[in-house]
Amino acid sequence: MYLSDMHTHSIASGHGTSCTISDMAKKASAMGLKLLGITDHGPATLAAGTPSYFRSLAFSPKHRFQVDLLYGIELNILDTEGTIDLEEEILQHLDYAIVSMHWQNFRPRTKSENTKAFLNATKHPAVKIIGHCDNPEYPVDYEQLVLGARENDVILEINEASLAPYGYRGDTRANSAQILRYCQKYNVPILLSSDSHGTTHIGDFTYAAEFVHNAAFPESLILNNQLPRLKVFLMNR
User: Fold this and answer.
1) Strand 35-41 vs strand 4-9: parallel, antiparallel, or unpaired?
2) Are the CB atoms for 172 and 142 separated by under 8 Å?
3) What is the per-residue burial (b if ≥16 Cβ within 10 Å, else e) of 98-126?
4) Angle at 158 between CA 88 and CA 164, to 5 degrees
5) Would you list the DSSP string of 16-68?
6) End-to-end distance of the chain based on CA atoms, in angstroms?
7) Neighbour tally for 60: CB within 10 Å
8) How far apart are CA 16 and CA 152, in angstroms?
9) What's the pLDDT at 84?
10) What residues contact 59, with CB distance under 8 A and at least 6 apart?
11) Among 62, 60, 6, 10, which residue's Cα sits nearest to residue 33?
12) Angle 169-170-175 (CA atoms, 0-180°, nearest 5)?
């Protein structure tokens, strides 16, 4: 069992979910989690979190239903220069950020351009996780991505929503295998993430955990159960 889930979405992300942060924390507690990250989509996502919403998170409770909470954001990468969709002043008050590519904000480009965009985005000190970079629509040079992540003190996730049958990104297994191979080669940690929109999949790593286990990836490089280390890592600017 894993004790943390750092990539989840509440009602503020839109996408049809009506779950509040309290709903999310209650479900996390029921799943046995000790640490939950709320990372709603950035303002460039249609009907997602507004700047005022993310600004207000600094005043939200950090402990609910016996679960510690960190408040972050899933930023949208907007161009190959790594431009992101939340202003610096607000980012400074969030605990951490994930950066991801979404079709409505960054159309798939060449492997070189996609890799450049990810690497440039990871240079921002708030960015600590690269989100679902397993997407086959966005070819990436995974060795260069992992090396850049190590240089910028950023980690990659293995995304449950990508590997599960209900996922919509196609067959991500080959790309996930490359992520694991290079992370192990260069000693770069990973996180298992549910990417749950609402409460349904919070703390559910059924397919991600099986995939990582079958790849014989070392447990010491999976940060989900290393809570003090994980908190320090995510909030270290």
Assistant:
1) parallel
2) no
3) bbbbbeebbeebeeebbbbbbbbbbebeb
4) 120
5) T----HHHHHHHHHHTT-SEEEEEEEPTTSTT---HHHHHHGGGS-SEETTEE
6) 29
7) 11
8) 34
9) 98
10) none
11) 6
12) 85
* Phi, psi of 170, deg, nearest 5: 85, -160
In the numeric block, the tokens 């996609």 are attached to 114
Q: Give the position of tokens 């999310």.
A: 24
- Helix (H) or strand (E) holding 159, with range, is strand 155-159
In angstroms, the Cα distances linking 14 to 135, 178, 229 are: 21, 31, 31
Burial environment of residue 183 by CB neighbours within 10 A (0 to 12, 13 to 18, 19 or more): buried
Tokens 């040079």 appear where?
Answer: 141
Reading the block at residue 91, the tokens are 């980012």
Token digits for 40? 């709603």
In angstroms, the CA 21 to CA 15 distance is: 15
Please give the single-letter amino acid code of residue 101.
Answer: M
* Distance of alpha carbon 82 from alpha carbon 77, whole angstroms: 6
pLDDT in tens, 125-171: 999 999 999 999 999 999 999 999 999 999 999 999 999 999 999 99
**pLDDT at residue 47, rounded to an integer:** 85
pLDDT surpassing 80 at residue 15: no
Question: Buried (b) or exposed (e) across 131-149, using 16+ Cβ within 10 A?
Answer: bbbbbeebbbbbebbbbbb
Phi, psi of 191 (to 5 degrees): -125, 140
